[in-house]
Each structure stands twice: as structure tokens, then as C-alpha cells.
Amino acid sequence: MKRKLVFATNNAHKLEEVAAILRDKIELLSLNDINCHTDIPETADTLEGNALLKSSFVKENYGLDCFGDDTGLEVEALNGAPGVYSARYAGGEGHDSQANMLKLLHEMEGKENRKARFRTVISLILDGKEYFFEGVVKGEITREKHGDSGFGYDPIFQPEGYEQTFAELGNEIKNKISHRALAVQKLCEFLQR
């Protein structure tokens, strides 16, 4: 019998991405599947802290084994910003990817150093213990948007070793090389031990 695990997210893109990476290794449940309709607040000032807030919330309120994640885009020329605030970088309510990208491109105007990295941290609560897994992919911020697939900052992030942005590479390639893929891979290896 496959192990059931809740992924503490309401983000359909993330859920799809992680389900594709995990394939048939575990039975993945969303917050919706467990009738959790709470928008779990991300109030920590680190990716690790936010990931743990999500997994802890599900464990404490539903008693289920769970993992939560948080991802940040860390831009060298901006001293690591937007980082933990990536989803809310442009301010306002919700996660406005277009506004976030436009703000970042504006902040990067005239900057020669385009180096950046995406970092995902997963917090797993399993059998009462906490575990963390991290995935990092280095790359650079393009000068304009390219591509239509993916979400978030994908149209302006070009991973190292590729001539295209995440949004141009498409989900099949992105799901093999992305920060989230690397963190989920570590999670998978851990669960299969």
C-alpha cells in the first residue's frame, strides 16, 4: 500500500509539478482533499520557517503526515531579494506573478550582475519528526520575459547550462532540473529508505 502524504498547498501549479515528479511513489493529497480551506499564513522570515508553518498547521489541525514548501528567488545584485518575499514582492493581495516580474525587471535595470538562484525548502513531518530538504538551481535573470509555460518568475529565469528560460523549456525539462524537483527528489529518496 502506498503511503499517503498531504502537500500543504493550494497552488494548483505546484501540486501538478510535485505530483508529476512523485508519479506513483506516494499518494499525494492536497489541502482541498482533506477539506482544509485555510490560507495558511507565511509569516516566518526564512523559507525554512514558512515551510514548517505549513506542515505544522496540517499536523496540528488534521493529525496527518504532511510536507510544506517555500520557494524564493534570490538575486545576487539585490542582496538576495526578493527571497522569502518572492510571492508577495510587488505587494498587494495574493500572488501577482506579472507585477512581481515587472518589479524585479525594474529593480534590475542597469545592473550587469544578473546572477540569481531559486531555492526550495521542504519541511516534512512524518511520524512525529521534522525533516528538511533543500533544492537549489543557479541561473540568471533575463532582461525581458520569454516563454509561456510554468508560473511565477519562470519567464525571466534562465537556469545555468541552458539558453532558454524555465518558461521556454517547458514542464517536462523543468520538472527534472528545477529547485523544487531537486528538493522533491531528496524527499522521495528519503521516503523510499
Helices and strands, with pairings:
Layout: E1 4-7, H1 12-22, E2 27-30, H2 47-62, E3 66-75, E4 82-83, H3 97-107, E5 115-126, E6 129-141, E7 157-159, H4 166-177, H5 179-192
Parallel strand pairs: 1-2, 1-3
Antiparallel strand pairs: 3-4, 3-5, 5-6, 6-7
Helix pairs in contact: 1-5, 4-5
| Low-pLDDT stretches | none
* Proportion of beta-strand residues: 15-25%
Number of DSSP-assigned strands: 7
Rg calc: 16 Å
For the report, how would you describe the main beta sheet?
7 strands, mixed
Name the structural class: alpha/beta
N-C termini distance: 15 Å
Estimate the global geometry from the Cα principal axes: globular
Helix content: 25-40%
* Number of helical regions: 5
Write down the secondary-structure element order: EHEHEEHEEEHH
Quaternary organization? single chain
Give average pLDDT, whole number: 91
Description:
The chain is 33% helix and 25% strand. The chain has five helices and seven strands; from the N terminus they run βαβαββαβββαα. It has 193 residues and is α/β, with parallel strands linked by helices.
Note the main attributes of this structure.
alpha/beta, 193 residues
At a glance:
The chain has five helices and seven strands. By secondary structure, it is α/β, with parallel strands linked by helices. The longest helix is centred in the first third of the chain and has 16 residues.
